[in-house]
Amino acid sequence: MTPDWRPHDIGGHAMISDGQTAALIYEDATIDWLCMPRFDSQACLASLLGTAENGGWWIGATDAPLRTSRSYRDDTMILETVIETEGGEVAIIDFMPVQRGEAPDIVRIIEGRRGAVELETRLALRFDHGRTHPMVRQHDDGEMLAIAGPNAVILRFCCCIGHQDRAFTGKFTVREGERKALCLTWFESESEVPRAIDPEKALEEAERFWRDWADKTEYEGIADKAVRRSLLTLKALVHEHTGGMVAAATASLPERPGGQRNWDYRFCWLRDATFTLLGFLHTGHKDEAREWIEWLRRAVAGEPIDVQPFYAIDGNRHSLEWEADWLQGFGDSRPVRFGNGAVGQVQLDIYGEVIDAICVARCHGLAEDSDDLIAALAEKLETLWREPDAGIWESRGDPKHHVYSKVMCWVAFDRAAKMLGDAMPERARRWRDLAEEVREQVLTHGFNENRGAFTRAFDDDALDGAVLRLPIVGFIDATDERMRKTVDAIERELMSGDMVYRYSNDTTDDGVGGAEGAFVAVGLWLADVYAQQGRSEDARRLFDAALNSANDLGLLSEECWMEDGRQIGNIPQALSHVALVNTALSISADGRPPRLA
Predict the structure, then answer these.
(1) What's the number of domains the chain is made of?
(2) Nearest Cα residue to 36 out of 116, 122, 148, 111
C-alpha cells in the first residue's frame, strides 16, 4: 500500500497535543499537519494544505487492510488506530509526551495484537510550511538528523531508516505481543541533540496527565462524554507555558470547499478565550482560568489602550497576513493564508467579553486584584463605543454600528459599574449612565420594526446570528416579544435543518464574497435561547444536531457544509467546543446561562 496524502474530509482528522503544539492525524494514520515547536510555528508537515510533496508521515500495512478503526483512550488525547489485515491486527498509538520543555516529540508505538503484520512508514519533512527540504545525515546508532535553518529533527525509529525520494522510509513486522516505537523530536539546530525518551514511560506519563486533568471536571448533565471530550480538546489548545489558548490548531482550512474563506486561527482570540474561561470555571477547572487571566495581563502590558482582537501565544501583538502560493490548499481552496489581517481591526465586543469574564472569575475567587484592569478597559471604551467597528465576524467590508458590539459595550459598562461601585464610585456612576445610554441606542436603532427583529447593525435590514447572545449576556429577556420575533426571523432566514448560518451572504457584504457553511456555535446559541424560552425539546434538538456534526472522535470544526453534512473550516475549533460545553450547562440547568456576573 502507498499513502494517499490528499485527504478528502476535514472531519477525517484527529488531534494530538502536548500543550505546546498539536498534530493532525488523518483516518489512514497519516500525520498531515504539524507545526513545531509551537502551535503558531511554521509547519514541517503540511500536506493537509498541499500534496505529499509538502510533508507528511504515514504508517500503514503493506497488505490492504480489511478494516481500520480509531478512538481516543478514555479521557486522554492519546489516539489509537487499529489496522486489521489477513495476517493479523496492530494498533498505532499516537501521542505527544507532555511537559517535555523545549524539545517536543511525536511518539508512535505500534502494538501487535494478533498474528503478524508487515508495516511500512514514509516520512517527508518539509520545513517553512511545506516548502524547504532539510539537509539529512546519520546520527548515532542509526538515528537520522534532518536540519533546515533554525529547525532540526532527530528520528529514532524501531527499524532501519532509508532516505530516498527526499523522504525517510522503513519497513518492519510487528507480531502479537510486540511493541515497537518510532519517535520524532524537534530541537533548535544550534543546540545539542536532545536525549532520547523512553516511549513506554512517556506514554504512561501522558495518560496519567490527561486523566488526572479530566478527573477534576465537575459536571453532571446532558451529553457527559461529549462535554468531557470538548473540555479535553480545549485544554489541548491551551499553551502550557503561557496560558494563551489558540482558536484552532490549523490554518487556512476552507469555510467553503474550493473557496477563498481560508484563515489562520493559530492565535489567541480574546473573545474565544473568554467564552472558554466561563466553560472552565463552571466545570471545575480554575487553574486554566487563572493562567488565562495572567496571560491577559501580560498581553495588554498593563495599559490596555490599544486592545487587539487577538495576540500570539506569547502575547506578541504582530501578525502579518500573507499567502503561501506554493500550497494548493485543502481541496484546491486558495489562497492559503498564514497570519491574520484582522489583528488590526476595531472589534468593540471584546471589551465587554473580557470585563465580563474577569467579573465571573472574581465571583470564583480569582482576579481579585483586577480593579485597575477593569477600569482601564472601561475608560478606553468610553472613547470608542460610539464608533463603528468590524464586529464579531471580523468583516472586511465597511465598518458598521454592529448591534452585538454595542450590546457588549453595554455589558462592559454594566459589569464595570457593578464590580467597582465601592472602589470607584464616581467612575461607576458614569459607567452606569453610559450603560443606560448604550441600551437606549440599541433598542432604538438595533431593533428593526419593519423586519420585526434585532438586526446586524443599526438601521440595517440584514439578520445576524450574533444577536442570539443578547439574552445570554443578560441584555434582554429571552421571552421578550422583540427577542421572540428575532428568533422567528432567524428560524425563517438563517436556519437549514437544525443548523444555523451566522448571516446570509446574499444580504451581508463582509468584504470577502462567496458562500459558507452553517456555523456550529450559532446553532448552539439558538439552543441556549430556546432553553431560556422554555422550549426544552427544541433546545435539545439543536444541541443534538451540533453533536451529530462532530466527527467519530467528537471533534468539531467551525462550520458544517449543509449540502452533504461534512465539516468545513479549521479543526478542532475552540469556539464550537466551548459553545457545546456552555450550552450543555445551560440546558442541564433548565435554561439558566452559566454565568454569575
Answers:
(1) 2
(2) 148
